[in-house]
Amino acid sequence: MLMKVKTEDWVLEMRGITKSFPGVKALDGVQLQVRKGSVHVLVGENGAGKSTLMKILSGEHAVDSGEIFFQGTQLGQQNTRAALELGIAMIHQELSPVLDMTIAENIFLGREPMQTRWLGLFVDFERMARETQALLDRLGLPYRAEQKMRELSIAGMQLVEIAKAISRHAALVIMDEPTSAISDTEVAMLFRQIADLKARGVAMIYITHKMDEIFQIADDITIIRDGQYVDSGPASSYDQHKLIGLMVGRTISSIFPKETVPLGELALSVRGATRHGVFQNISFDVRQGEIVGLAGLIGAGRTEVARAIFGLDRLDKGEIWLNGQKLTLNQPSDAIQQGIAMVSEDRKAEGLVLCRSVQENISLANLEKFAPGLLLDLQAETEAGQKMRSMLQIKTADLNTVVGTLSGGNQQKIAIAKWLLRDLKVLILDEPTRGIDVGSKSEIHRLMTQFAKQGLAIIMISSELPEILGMSDRVVVMQEGHMRGELTRANATQENIMALATGAKT
Ligand SMILES: Nc1ncnc2c1ncn2[C@@H]1O[C@H](COP(=O)(O)OP(=O)(O)OP(=O)(O)O)[C@@H](O)[C@H]1O
Ligand SMILES: [Mg+2]
How many whole angstroms from 46 Cα to the centroid of ligand 2? Predict the structure, then answer.
């Protein structure tokens, strides 16, 4: 269905957009029309071509063929700076802020205010800091302008990028999965900004995999699948079921395919785990076949606890036991040797080697398996890679594709895939389906259930309450480094968890 809107109401119109990368046709005749002052949600499975379409708009990729009209004028081959000057701002899915810059420097990057003093022209740092602070305060962000980017959480960096787009007075702001790394409170903060921008006539293209968000903020929706335009229309003409069907081209029976698995022996025991100033006195157990969800707001200390169990950080106090044996974990290799694996939330920094191939990434985590002696068993390696690929439905031309060029969701699947060949006892998943489309999400959940059936003890950190509620046998809630409660599957509700996570109930 085409939207029945007069052309002059469009701020953006893209027609017949086609783009190929070596071996992949990422976009094939895609169209997109965005109304002035509207929130347009762009949806589609991982690898559908959403980010690529937006990168063409922002001038990062050249288009092979197709036309783009922005505010009534046709755009030629442009670059990022030209797009910025026209009033198109893009917030990327994979953030790459310069970590050693301050927030103010990042916000003013490339357009620093200058001042003349007796020796010449200088960057006016004072003004930069002042204006940045005013912006942060206006947006209700709890940061200081002179704070270094590296001090912020992923969520914080994302919010700063949003502030940056706002400060550039863009007419069209593109947000590529802005909430994939942030908590509910921060999402609320972002949605207030979106409403505010909209009221000022700014149009937004918003990419997300979160179903509840789509219907909360979308005015219009466009669906693409495998690089092709599928459908478009006002949000009110869709419901969740219809939308999922259009996105994945098939119906998905259940979003959380949780099965009750008989629990085995006690596997992992965390006793009084403490890292001064980070988390205090954390104790919980995970049995074989059990999925324990770690819930809490961003910064509650969940990832830090996981890091300690994986041997990345030392405990100041407390013990970690596995199958009745007390563990000494000085580094991740100690944990890996014991059969503990972790899929980290920050796949860029810890999870994957982006400049290496899919195959190499899978093999690197399993070297002793493929190279029992000194020679690499190439056949076993390739077979395992193929198996992983079909199991997780990783969308890649072949196993030699460089991981960095895959879509965000497919990168995440590989970060998980690389562990799945090992003989595991404990699997720690930190935000396992962040940025993953609904179809693949249920694939990953199905895999989790399969591992649980094989007797693995699973710890899952997730900021998505539906995922916590859908997949956990038990939920441990943390707040500000403390354990605030433990809920059984039967007792775990959205309200109970939020009350504990925000400290409303102790
Ligand atoms: N720079 C690149 N080089 C080669 N292939 C690429 C490049 N960028 C994207 N692709 C490929 O183009 C296709 C579309 O990718 P894109 O990142 O646009 O997907 P997406 O819809 O944003 O997915 P996700 O929801 O996972 O972020 C994928 O098959 C991807 O591997
Ligand atoms: Mg993307």
Answer: 7
